[in-house]
Amino acid sequence: MSSIRKVAVFGVSLRELRHPDNRRSPPSRLRGHHLHPTCRDLLFLFHLQPPRSFPTEAGSIVHVADYSDVASLTTALAGHDAVVSVLGPGAMAHEVPLVDAAVAAGVKRFVVNDFGWGQNPRSYPEMVEVGARRHVAWDRAREKAASNPGFSWTGVTIGNPIDWALRRFPRMGFNVAEHTAIIYDSGTEHFTGTTLAGIGQAVVGVLSHPEETANRFVKVRSIKTCQNELLEAFQEEAASGKPWSVEHAKVADLLEGGRQKHQAGAPGWILDLLVAQLYEEGSARCVVAASREDSDADLLGVREETAREVVAKALSQ
Ligand SMILES: NC(=O)c1ccc[n+]([C@@H]2O[C@H](COP(=O)([O-])OP(=O)(O)OC[C@H]3O[C@@H](n4cnc5c(N)ncnc54)[C@H](OP(=O)(O)O)[C@@H]3O)[C@@H](O)[C@H]2O)c1
After folding, report:
1. What is stated as this protein's family in its record (predicted)?
2. 218: Cβ–Cβ under 8 A, 6 or more apart, which residues?
3. Is residue 18 part of a domain?
């Protein structure tokens, strides 16, 4: 396959492109590639700014296209070598038209929307149901690759997006603002995660190694860790500041509470079950790659990070 130069990214928000860090160059996660991010925010801007494509502050070109209209998406994707989809869970219905448009436009590689646990056989049954929504587009990409020799796909399985998730979800056990921790069971269950920098590098790695990454899920990790190790790192980072206070809880209680919410149709059950399966002792439910050698990290240029580095990133976000 010839090299990939021009990449369309679906799901990078205009807010992100306007972030001060991104003003002088495309988002660092994908620096080095020619980006054409698209975003539904721009449907609004389109009414204010009639041209159908225009440069952003980040120096990239933004196209306006209707996600449900394969013909309009095909026009927007003409001349692109690759598509990366990082659309949010609410946009899963758009994924199949995106794949169809990419094939019609002659795109060579479609990075399907995973950035999660891939086809994790150890997920709780309730989580398998949630994941099934994105499998429809994965299956479409497989089907299209089988019948179109110039088209291929890759899924990027990253496990826990760890620095972002630690900061965003105190339910994971670390309340970064309050310096309070909840350690589930013994705190020794290991899981794997990838930092935002690692996720960006993984995508760049896929686009830079199209042959080796064609038609498969790549397994990515920045770290294999456990709650106790992360707590120690948080405490070391806070050595001269406010100390962390620690409580203990049981995974079984978290799981039971989450399942009750699920049965009652109440919100919050997905996060409860995600955290329970992360820390369920002896299950290795959330290990994408048990060792670095078992992952694609070296191929993709994703480096292993220490718990201290990961928590420093979580604290700085
Ligand atoms: N491994 C994990 O545990 C984990 C956790 C979270 C996310 N992820 C992955 O990260 C990626 C992004 O997820 P997220 O939760 O961060 O997504 P998000 O913030 O909800 O949305 C990301 C992008 O998708 C667009 N979008 C969302 N809903 C849309 C809709 N109905 N129609 C059109 N565009 C829509 C958003 O557009 P606007 O800017 O216009 O809103 C935004 O640009 C996904 O691949 C997801 O699987 C993984």
Report:
1. Belongs to the NmrA-type oxidoreductase family. Isoflavone reductase subfamily.
2. 154, 155, 156, 157, 202, 205, 206, 296, 299, 300
3. yes
Q: Does 1 reside within a domain?
A: no
Q: Which atom of ligand 1 is nearest to the CA of 117?
A: 1
> For residue 72, what are the contacts with CB-CB under 8 A and spacing of at least 6?
65, 66
Give the model's confidence band at 240: pLDDT under 50 very low, under 70 low, under 90 confident, else very high.
confident
| CATH number of the domain to which 75 belongs | 3.40.50.720
- Answer whether residue 30 is part of any domain: yes
Is residue 166 domain-resident? yes
Which residue in 103, 57, 64 sits closest to 83, CA to CA? 103
Q: What is the pLDDT of residues 186-211, one digit of tens each?
A: 999 999 999 999 998 899 899 999 99
Query: Can you give the residue range of the structural domain that contains 19?
Result: 6-158+194-221
Same domain, 114 and 207: yes
| Helix H or strand E segment including 217 | strand 216-219
Work out how many domains the chain is built from and give that number: 2
161-191: per-residue pLDDT in tens?
999 999 999 999 999 999 999 999 999 999 9
List all residues whose CB is within 6 A of at least one atom of ligand 1: 11, 13, 39-41, 67, 86-91, 113, 115-116, 158, 160-161
